[in-house]
Amino acid sequence: xxxxxxxxxxxxxxxxxxxxxxxxxxxxxxxxxxxxxxxxxxxxxxxxxxxxxxxxxxxxxxxxxxxxxxxxxxxxxxxxxxxxxxxxxxxxxxxxxxxxxxxxxxxxxxxxxxxxxxxxxxxxxxxxxxxxxxxxxxxxxxxxxxxxxxxxxxxxxxxxxxxxxxxxxxxxxxxxxxxxxxxxxxxxxxxxxxxxxxxxxxxxxxxxxxxxxxxxxxxxxxxxxxxxxxxxxxxxxxxxxxxxxxxxxxxxxxxxxxxxxxxxxxxxxxxxxxxxxxxxxxxxxxx
Length: 287
Known about the structure:
Elements: H1 8-31, H2 39-63, H3 72-93, H4 101-134, H5 144-166, H6 185-206, H7 218-231, H8 237-265, H9 267-286
Helix pairs in contact: 1-3, 2-3, 2-9, 3-4, 4-8, 4-9, 5-6, 5-8, 7-8
């Protein structure tokens, strides 16, 4: 969910509601004690808990998208702004006191849920742009493993075909290559070194056998393939460039995985604690 100009009415409405709430709270707080059991405290508690229930209802709306109860984007905006507004209203409800152990736990959980929700909104607003900028080879997330397997196969095919590219032709303009390259020591040594680099560095990186391969660093990758280009004859440079591009695509797919997991990791904190807040909120209300 991107935070754009469509959020402006929600921002204005939230600020107005908060300002009116503070204007109502201050005179009562000056002349009387405000707590969760007072009339004004109950009012803020009902409104704040109502906003919390509305924010929680987004999960039900997503689970049953066929229910045509408002547009999904309106639910998302309401979830963000009314959910964030619930926290100050609950503070007004409690008179800025945490109270007993149950209300203290509830307030701490509500603060964590609100902060995690704001962090999630920030990530949803910024990470898609970063992904477009940093991941030129972006693909469907569920297909990444399949794509990486294809990269390994492509690299192996490039390696198997490079012998023909390196062998000299017979005569001017000939298209037939020498197949007996063992008789050419220089080419044999170059192929052996290339195969060693492929088996020790390129293949382990592409197959994730080495978790912290130096090839994940662009500077190291550039130096490695520059060395290969200086070692190989000019006719094999296209294959070296193709392998370098394969490694770059793998690097960007790994970056996409990191950004995708970062984008969704905050939900592991936000959703369970939100459910706990709702349950404890009912317990607190009944108590």
